[in-house]
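INFO worker-7 received task bundle
INFO bundle size: 2
INFO processing item 0
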Amino acid sequence: MTIYLVILLTVLTHTSFKGSRVLISLYAIEFGATPFEIGVLFSMYSVFPVVLSVYAGKISDRLGFRIPMLFGACGLMIGLLLPFAFPRLPALYASAVLIGMCYIFYTVTVQHLIGSFGEGHARTRNYSLFSLGIALTALFGPTTAGFAIDLIGHRSTYLLLALLPALPILALLLFPSLLPRLHVKHEERHGQRVVDLVRDPPLRRALITAGLVETGLELFNFFLPIYGHFSGLSASQIGISMGAFAAALLLVRGAMPMLARRSSEEAVLSGSLFLAGGAALLFPLVSSFPLLTALSFVLGLGLGCGSPLSMILAYNRAPPGRSGEAIGLRQTVNKATEVVMPLIFGSLSTALGMLPVFWLEALILAWAGALMRREAPVRKDETG
């Protein structure tokens, strides 16, 4: 029962987080921000997580789950209240920095927690359930933000999103026994370095895969609000298009265990990356609401498997006692991607327009698909 409560609490916090990333783009446009400036805003979410993710994992390895999750949820709420209290562009930058700096502790810790609930097939099932919950937030967050913006405005939407983490904060404060205690083995940790994790070939491949998938996710989250706005879509229509992406995540993650059993994780990931590359190739060629929504759904089908598969692999391949650290290292790779790619995407779109950005991403995804296809027989030999 505990795992379902943890997923419910995470759905609330992550819905708020996902909604804020749509809201910050559209609010920045209202303040006259350029695509490059919006790219910088998006990067601010991930600057501190690049250096804090591994530390967050170590904290969860040593202190357990409750304290870092509580810290992350409180930081998320305060970060969302800043633009409500100070409705100007600098407050958006401060909000993005604070949310990113604090919420990474919740993100890394809850992924570590889900992995601790079981082993083998039970762990795979638990991560699949968790990834379905995260997919729901990709549906609820953008659609909630989009409709709320049209109904009550950007500033009040920040207040609405800030209310969502309140229940998780209260639950973690009032019911400390809600989360299991982490049984830490007090062993000497001298000589253990992060670089040792990177040197492990199977773990390194899982990290590379996570980063490549993240480029596609970041392109969609960053560019669809901007592209939809300049294509004449309302905030509600942008939210619906992003909700279609989330619906595809739900569908493909529900089918992921069956697909992997019939072939392999690498084959599933390879095919899905090729599909995502094709969708990215077509994106800049359409501008109508129905076609953008349809392509968002196809892109979601292509990118949906990558995150849960890389999460499972990172946990399973971590050395004993360092699973939280490995999960944090995976987040470091993801957050570094989230820092760099919006700046690259924003700069390219400002100078050359949006078409080269989508086509560059299509090439990256196609290359990643080819890499996974070549790697598949190697992985089978390694893991049996």
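INFO item 0 finished
INFO processing item 1
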Amino acid sequence: MKNLVAEIREYLMEHHDWFSKSIPLIASENITSHAVDEACNTDFSHRYAEGWSGERVYAGCKYIDKVEDICMNLANKYFKSIHADVRPISGVVANLTMYNALTSDNNGKMCCMSIIRGGHISHGPRFAKSGREIFGTAGTTRGLNIEYLAFDNDEMNLDIDASAKIIREFEPELVLFGGSVFLFPHPVKELGDVAKEVGAYVGYDAAHVAGLIGSGYFQDPLREGADVMTLSTHKTLPGPQHGTLVSNREDLIDRLRSCAFPALLSNHHLHNVAGLAIAYAEMLEFGKEYHKKVIDNAKALGQALNERGLKILMEHKGFTKSHQILVDVAEYEKSIGLGGDIEKLLESSNIILNRNLLPRDLIEGRHYQNPGGLRIGTSEVTRLGMGKSEMVDIAEMIKKVVIDKKDPKKVKEEVIEFRKGFQEIHYCFDTSNKAYEYLKFY
């Protein structure tokens, strides 16, 4: 067993070393500061605190309550909300809390985006409502009854008129905005008004864009008509892996609280609540500057890749208004392959991004394991101090692999040299600390 422990430690060290020499471009990831890491690596990780702050089932929570109260207050300040629940242990759990609070127990009805057009897997019928299947035994309908909103492939956004028709005909209990592919703000106000016509609640999954929203960019769902906004806390919001749910509906607070605990939560990873509190404080201090650069870098990277011959979606709209861009790689299918193949090639060059389905993949019969697209995000490279000029450098290295078909090992050498200048975390309270400092074992 001692040898296995040593082996595990070695893998951890190798992973840290690898990422310190790589360009991290996965849109759903970010990096936490040393202050956040320190909070997560405390005795809070050993403790239990079931229930709401001040109403715990366990003893020994007096300092845990204080930290959790601070975290909730900071989340409310950041999102300009009156209710923040920082207990959900992920964005999916926050979503399930919202589903349970805003839809009926059996055959609840929801409208959202389909996965093929950017919706998250937790929005789909097979994964909604506490993870239950949409069809139960003996044909009994369980979970959520989903009707997908209409999508405009050319604009990479919801089709307002067609979606309004669907909402009026389907009469859902919940209309959900947000997704995993999220280039442009969703029409929350326009379709939210339609949702209210049929008596539906409006939800917004801000997992990908929470930091952009909190720092005053992208859009403002709670002011545009969303009753509840959910989020994960480790994408554009650079905290530990956790979740948050916020609302300005005072009449929903008790229901939302009870649908989190005891329905979906017991203990809720208290060390990550502590780390999240610090992440919220960092973004209240540095988020305005940081998130502007995240968006600027996404636009700059899209432009640089486009100029080098890659097909970046939505050129006519400036590529993006978020941290993401999408690349259509279908033309390379016969030469070097599709998204999954190119993802592997780039990974061997120490350029880390992910394959992604595009709307046309459904028509052309492509599988999610090897789809026609790539998704690229700029949150992490921005936090490592990179700017628009570095986006040009990154675009050039991607071009060498995808278009020029250079040896990935040669490009890897360039990447390693490039990364030597970007080892510190920015937009936080401790900029002198290394981004991928080796793990400390106690």
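INFO item 1 finished
INFO post-check item 1: The chain is about 40% helix and 15% strand.
INFO post-check item 1: The CA atoms of residues 97 and 264 lie 7 Å apart.
INFO worker-7 idle
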